[in-house]
Amino acid sequence: MTTAPTDTIAAIASAPGAAGVGVVRVSGPAAPAIAQALLGRAPQPRRAYLAAFRDGVGELIDRGLLLHFPAPASYTGEHVLELQGHGSAVLLDALLRRVCELGARLARPGEFTERAFLNGKLDLTQAEAVADLIAARSQAGARAALQSMEGVFSRKVGALLQALIALRVHIEAAIDFPEEEIDFLADPAITARLENLRAELAELLREAQRGVRLNDGLKVAIVGRPNAGKSSLLNALAGSERAIVTAIPGTTRDVLRETLSLDGIALELADTAGLRETQDEVEREGVRRAHGQLARADVALLVSDAGHAAADLALLDALPAGAERVVLVNKIDLAHAAAHAETRDGNRWLWVSAKTGEGLDALRDHLKQLAGAGSGEGAFSARRRHVLALESVRDHLDRTAAILTGSRAGELAAEELRQAQHALGEITGDYSSDDLLGAIFSSFCIGK
What we know:
The radius of gyration is 28 Å and the shape is flat. The strands form two sheets. It has a seven-stranded mixed sheet, sandwiched between helices. Helices cover 46% and strands 18% of the residues. Strand 10 (299-304), helix 11 and strand 11 form a beta-alpha-beta unit. It is α/β, with parallel strands linked by helices.
């Protein structure tokens, strides 16, 4: 584990806002001395002082507020100094240079939050949620990021971790007493605890997948045969003529993307080329890109009609496991059919008309549900790496169940549980490499 640094960092933490205020933030052991040099006396903790910020020769840089937060009662867990001045970029740069002359260095992106993690003020999921909140593209995403900052995700991972450790203790107890191993591992209580653990993990994985969608937005691929109405659907959902619509098959030849918000839920729509065999080189490239878009989608909207929908299901074979499938039976205006919805073989089927808009409200509502709308106050933000870690835990628990059912080799089961524990620890940062931390915090903005 990386140890907490001992130097002092500084950065412009807040650019000019509506009130014309900018902030320079300082964190580290030199912060109290810097505060005294700028104020002319030692400041009292958490008290705002009106100060004249001067350079090394006594020339006035700016007048503003100075606040000092002693360690460990601060965001980073270190001595923290905040200097609030007028929002001129020139004045903020001059103030930052003066702070560096007094003993600080320029902070790297995300270094303040990284120090909060290293000093135990935040775990890794909470630290990542800081960046997610800043980058939130919807109200739902912002609320989910706040939940993660408050530790909702961390507590769920922690509870799962404790249950896993308890099961691991029971398994390893059998290894310590080999003469009792067979009877011990055959205990139905062990199997029951493992199954409960797998069920809890499955629920947490579903919540984390929903959290990724709330954080990143729902990636929706619109696919189907040529002239099925894919571009008309994109235009109807976007509320504008974003895609060219003609009666000529193969009009759409590239992936056309549109980002929109449905009641605070971010959606990324991708209209793709019609999926068919073709000798046209350009259209063939469009079909290839359509398959690539489908492989990355959270949701596939298969646009078809009443006569082809069942056969067109084969077009979804490239969809990744866990991605949602929605079958849109389009052109009900031509078939004189009514808009309705039903579920077939686990897939949602909606009868709509992209031309008249009939049935599209049901589609919008379904997309919002898939993206996490209405998931309640407990919904939290998550990242792809969290989902991958939970999937790794699932695989290890599946192998543990197979071992206990088959060979009952305690050592192998214990090793699978150990690796599952390690994968869970990577989520909150109990086990973190320097490379992982560097990759996470480098994505933050300066001053956070």
